[in-house]
Specification:
Layout: H1 5-25, E1 31-32, H2 35-49, H3 54-83, H4 88-101, E2 111-115, E3 118-126, E4 129-134, H5 139-152, E5 156-161, H6 166-182, E6 190-193, H7 198-206, E7 212-216, H8 219-226, E8 231-235, E9 241-244, H9 250-262, E10 274-278, H10 279-292, E11 295-297, H11 300-310, H12 326-332, E12 343-347, H13 353-356, E13 363-369, H14 372-383, E14 389-393, H15 397-407, E15 411-414, E16 434-435, E17 441-442, E18 449-457
Parallel strand pairs: 1-6, 4-5, 4-7, 5-6, 7-8, 9-10, 9-14, 10-13, 11-12, 12-13, 14-15
Antiparallel strand pairs: 2-3, 3-18, 16-17
Helix pairs in contact: 1-3, 3-4, 3-5, 3-6, 4-5, 5-6, 9-10, 14-15
Length: about 475
């Protein structure tokens, strides 16, 4: 049964009160007053983690998985209450996905070869203490997923979370440290500060003991990390288009697109943000969206009101609208939406502000294309060269190949909802740091390691 907003707030307030009580009665693991202290504590922990066996690291990760499952509902409710974004049910599913499918130490592999002149090994070694900036859209998911991968690689991590998601992020960091202690590992394998700010972020980025920076967020924070003079992994913006051609299963495409677009109220950066449909099937696609998938067709008047509400005069997103449900967004512009409304759709040109802007809310503009070639050109334009994610619904393999080459994104989902890319209804693993800008793509434990070559000359070739 779906909870009302007042009931949800009451439950979450009780959860947060319990967390606060726990925090008052016992120190929260990994939370410090200042960034320099946090980094020093993480450095001390990393001296232990780096010499731990893979089995010991995996034991920590296994307990993190268990703790995520045990706390999935609590932390999902905390995230919704603190940020005002997304919905509890989908956030629970995201946490369970992190627990079940995030790669651990199996992602750390050694390559070896021998020849006439001896033996060479290439091993994955830790960077040390990694500095990570995390978003408010997927705060605990990013903290937990990154922590598992970074610990698997022998690192520890200092987080500077988004100010809108401090308590949720700290709760996740505490879980990671509890898991390490329970496994016999050190405290402070993941750390943060009591009140993360731009200043604490600047200290972290400049600190001599932070060799690698990982940023998950908007273009501003990624640019800052890449300008730091250190190695940076940047997961920035995307505006993923979903292309539908006349060969697709139109009914299924409508369902998949709406399911992907509405998951956690469109907060995932991989989610469908707009649709480009070949003209001959565009009306049919919209019909299925409206009649079978809970979409509300917005009039020109409603579109204009929405644009003025969700986008500020300076062109930025109104944070009060990000991650809100379709019903709430419509209420903001004076429309009482029918029960079961999941998504707001409309047809418009690619330059429409609600189409060309990455909204992170369940508003889905549909662009009509003359033919497949025109659809590809418009989709590439809409992706804005972010090289992040894109989607296509087609049964023509040659067309799928052509689109994939043209769009050149880190993720391409074919004939499924966007979240299939993260292993939810598809093959693969999840991550909430998709480094399209710096080229790593879907990050995992292996991403957070450096390659080290060890060569023995003229020995151990025993052919």
């Amino acid at each position: 049964m779906e909870m009302s907003e007042s009931q949800l707030k009451a439950v979450v307030s009780e959860v947060i009160a319990r967390v606060n009580l726990k925090a008052d009665s016992a120190a929260r693991h990994g939370v410090f007053d200042d960034m320099n202290t946090a980094i020093e504590k993480a450095k001390e922990a990393q001296r232990i983690v780096r010499v731990m066996s893979m089995d010991q690291r995996e034991k920590i990760i296994s307990i993190i998985r268990r703790k995520i499952k045990e706390n999935a509902e609590t932390i999902a409710r905390m995230g919704v209450e603190e940020t005002g974004m997304g919905n509890v049910g989908d956030k629970i599913l995201k946490h369970l996905l992190v627990a079940e499918k995030t790669p651990g130490t199996e992602d750390i592999k050694t390559v070896a070869w021998s020849g006439d002149r001896g033996l060479t090994l290439v091993e994955m070694g830790p960077f040390g203490v990694i500095g990570a900036i995390t978003p408010c859209t997927n705060p605990s998911e990013t903290v937990l997923c990154n922590s598992m991968g970074m610990i698997a690689g022998g690192n520890t991590v200092v987080f500077n979370p988004h100010p809108q998601a401090i308590r949720t992020s700290q709760y996740a960091i505490n879980l990671v440290n509890e898991a390490s202690l329970e496994a016999g590992g050190p405290d402070n394998v993941a750390v943060t500060v009591e009140n993360p700010t731009l200043d604490s972020s600047a200290i972290m980025m400049k600190h001599k003991d932070i060799p690698l920076l990982v940023a998950t967020g908007g273009p501003g924070v990624v640019t800052a990390v890449l300008s730091s003079g250190k190695r940076g992994i940047g997961a920035g913006a995307g505006n993923p288009p979903a292309l539908v051609d006349e060969t697709a299963d139109i009914r299924k495409a409508a369902k998949d697109i709406v399911n992907g677009c509405t998951f956690d109220n469109n907060l995932p950066c991989i989610a469908e943000k707009e649709v480009v449909a070949v003209s001959s099937i565009c009306d049919e696609l919209m019909k299925y969206m409206i009649e079978e998938n809970g979409c509300y067709l917005a009039s020109k008047e409603v579109q204009d009101k929405l644009a003025k509400t969700v986008i500020t005069e300076k062109g930025a997103l109104n944070r009060k609208c990000v991650g809100r449900s379709a019903k709430v967004l419509l209420e903001m512009v004076g429309v009482k939406a029918p029960e079961g409304t999941r998504c707001i759709i409309f047809e418009g040109p690619k330059e429409h502000p609600l189409i060309t802007t990455e909204l992170m809310m369940p508003i889905l503009g549909i662009v009509r294309a003359k033919d497949f070639k025109d659809a590809v050109e418009q989709a590439v334009w809409l992706e804005h060269g972010n090289r992040h994610s894109a989607h296509i619904h087609s049964k023509n393999v040659d067309r799928i190949t052509e689109y994939a080459r043209a769009i050149d994104t880190a993720i391409l989902v074919k004939n499924g909802p966007s979240y299939a890319a993260l292993g939810f209804g598809g093959e693969g693993f999840p991550t909430f740091t998709i480094a399209s800008r710096t080229g790593e793509g879907l990050t995992s434990a292996a991403t957070f390691t450096k390659r080290r070559r060890c060569t023995m000359s003229d020995s151990l070739c025993i052919r």
